[in-house]
Amino acid sequence: MRELASRLRDAWGAGEPVALATVVSTFRSAPRDPGASMLVTAQGEVVGSVSGGCVEGALYETGREVLETGAPRLERYGVSDDDAFSVGLTCGGTLEIFVERVSPREFPELGGVLADMEAGRPVAVATVVDHPDAAQRGRRAVLRPEDPGPGCEALGASSPGNPVSGGLAPAFSFGWEDERAEHAVLQDARALLEAGRSGILEYSPAGERQGPGQRIFVSSFAPRDRMIIFGAIDFAAAVAEIGAFLGYCVTVCDARPVFATAERFPHAEEVVVQWPDEYLRQEKEAGRIDGSTVLCVLTHEAKFDVPVLQEALSGPPLGYIGVMGSRRTHEERLRRLGEAGLREEQLERLSSPIGLDLGGRTPAETAVSIAAEIVASRRGGSGLPLRERHGPIHRSAEVSELKG
């Protein structure tokens, strides 16, 4: 839903109902992860994608029906020998997609959810997507943690308000004590939010954790991961642009005020004039650096690189540390870091020279190679051409989480 936030905000603010189709579960080589969304507007416009084109045609018709009736639907799409190219998935995977009508009447909390997403505050929406009683489908609760973690909200967003709004309790009307059932669901949903994950929770119709019957999809919107670029050079501008395109909250830092200006880096959330090692130490002490943080050290000057890398490599591993420079510069850098007391296992965390071997030369081409290495590191990719690999194209979420 994050990629549809602007269009959703416009429609919701105007009181215009839309059909929101959301991937809630996948199996095997499905093209999109849970949380991917598509809108069908009252004017017949389609915004977003849930499968890269495989099932959007069928979903368009479903969305029009849901807009008309207001009744949510859970659709399942897989390979169909007879109809694979019209409504099936030719990739061999399976998708479950929940389609619901969204407007200020059906989803009064949406404005707050979108505001949290825009401000970089963590928020989750827990929605009943399947239930023996069809009238209970579409019930939801909005959750917010009391203590948001590091991310873009660290750059100035305010703290969240009410931790829980909406309500799932009406979904439990089969003899279970509503408050206990809702507590179990909200506890489990909050755990997914804290982990930054979206997924399905299953309960009995009475709200017990064991046994099928009803399914609740938790869509988590955690703050964007951070990318910090050290070195305000022309390559940094290209890396900042592609980093923002990938969804990172981008900071550019350089000690030289003549180069570190907002005008030179329009895609960065902030541009900081400070010595790199001092800035990184400050951010670590403030709790704004974690295992998902990406560092790109592009200065290739020892007086900047060595101190900031000493800081980056001390403590728990970060998501990615890439360093620009020739092979000779890399060897000299390793020697200096070794003399500074860093161990071999710490130095192995460096991606240096930075990027994958794409043969690029321009800043834009170099940024693509850096982004490709970051994605491969995060998702467990090999960096090889797909034609040289065997097995599923899309890796499982478990692999991605281990790498990320």
TrEMBL record:
Region annotation (Disordered) ranges: 381-404
Gene3D superfamilies reported in the protein's UniProt record: NAD(P)-binding Rossmann-like Domain (3.40.50.720)
Annotated InterPro entries: MoCofactor_Util/Proc, XdhC_CoxI, XdhC_Rossmann_dom
Record domain XdhC- CoxI: where: 12-78
Tree of life domain: Bacteria
Domain XdhC Rossmann: 227-374
Compositionally skewed regions (Basic and acidic residues) per UniProt: 386-404
Pfam families associated with the record: XdhC_C (PF13478), XdhC_CoxI (PF02625)
PANTHER family for the chain: ALDEHYDE OXIDOREDUCTASE MOLYBDENUM COFACTOR ASSEMBLY PROTEIN (PTHR30388), MOLYBDENUM COFACTOR INSERTION CHAPERONE PAOD (PTHR30388:SF4)
Name of this chain's protein: Xanthine dehydrogenase
